Hints:
This protein is an alpha/beta fold and 371 residues long. The chain has helices at residues 9-23, 26-46, 50-65, 77-102, 124-142, 162-174, 193-212, 216-226, 248-253, 255-263, 281-294, 314-334, 338-341, 346-349; strands at residues 114-118, 154-158, 236-242, 265-275, 297-299, 306-308, 360-368. The chain is globular and about 70 Å long. The two termini are 18 Å apart.
Amino acid sequence: xxxxxxxxxxxxxxxxxxxxxxxxxxxxxxxxxxxxxxxxxxxxxxxxxxxxxxxxxxxxxxxxxxxxxxxxxxxxxxxxxxxxxxxxxxxxxxxxxxxxxxxxxxxxxxxxxxxxxxxxxxxxxxxxxxxxxxxxxxxxxxxxxxxxxxxxxxxxxxxxxxxxxxxxxxxxxxxxxxxxxxxxxxxxxxxxxxxxxxxxxxxxxxxxxxxxxxxxxxxxxxxxxxxxxxxxxxxxxxxxxxxxxxxxxxxxxxxxxxxxxxxxxxxxxxxxxxxxxxxxxxxxxxxxxxxxxxxxxxxxxxxxxxxxxxxxxxxxxxxxxxxxxxxxxxxxxxxxxxxxxxxxxxxxxxxxxxxxxxxxxxxxxxxxxxx
Length: 371
């Protein structure tokens, strides 16, 4: 199949894959590994001194209450945010990918799919995507369904915080992952993907003209005949906005950039918007619906508009275990943290308080092309 096409075998074998994934507990395996890697990173590489623990714990209230502000280049903000949010958002996004598989709209192909995550943060969505497609590849081998095999995805990101991407780079290396290691784009504001694509083509044209010692006109013709890669540069099978579009005013300000993302989808490509359910989120989703409609991208009507948050399963217990162990380390170095605890949810620091939070999270799914 050509690049960006859909594996219709997913429709035939998707239920088998989902049953296999549940039976082999592949999600628990990947989740527990991520949790162990994060716990090791925090305890062995971050919280190793009294000064570090004091600085870290002072950031925890910020990442709970000021998460929409540009605070992530401040010291210790990125690991504190990962401590609070990485595991929870990873498991939520895995749930989203499962629902895409049930709906038979998960992008697949004989070539690697290209993924763009806008507002990457500590990369929970990209880690979930990488692990989910790895699980599909494992199923294709175990079940002897070679046509279902999709190579590992190409992970691209938009993240303005150098501190956050520094965390992601170091954590990906520590966890021995294949990325992400850097941000493809540093700022979504002003990012027009068609313009970036044209700039890349012009850069390649000049390079070929220099290498062949010829004119740019000939180099352009040569590219048309011999290097068709530029047709696909900065075009995507899966684009993700996970907890990025949190203010209606921001959606209005980024209207052109959002439209450019929708227009950069390949045929069959999917845009995912993940966020909250109440407050201003209905207005945000309505605004995104209009932008998608203007670009000819259709919502997937049979996908649910929200999914449940689960707090009683094994993954929730593992998150709680991380919270307990990290907080114990903080208390060992910092002593009494009552003054901090008063401003934080009890389940984050109190050992016997079970994990809790919102009952559901919001989801919008859009796809380019007819079903």
